[in-house]
């Protein structure tokens, strides 16, 4: 099995993991901001002592790992699509890479593209 075939198999897996982790991360962010804050403000002291130690460690665990896996799968997708260039919609150089020119030097526009992408996100 060649390297590009391997990356074409990894690409949809990484995309779906990225989507699932991102939905988990953003969904829990909305939970913390819009639901938990309002509900916690209405609870009395005894209820908070029972609910918060049980609920918060579980939700923070999933929030932390949702954010981490979103970032990790995003870097994997960035490598597959941009740096490797095998799935870059035909915009590749002679060697199949989007980040390097045909003589092997790094293309300045590729760095600008990656920088703008990180700033936009």
From TrEMBL:
Membrane spanning residue stretches: 16-41, 62-82
Presence of the UniProt keyword Nucleotide-binding in the record: no
Any Pfam family hit: Urate_ox_N
Domain Urate oxidase N-terminal: 6-86
Sorted UniProt keywords: Membrane, Transmembrane, Transmembrane helix
Protein's recorded name: Urate oxidase N-terminal domain-containing protein
Lineage: unclassified sequences, metagenomes, ecological metagenomes
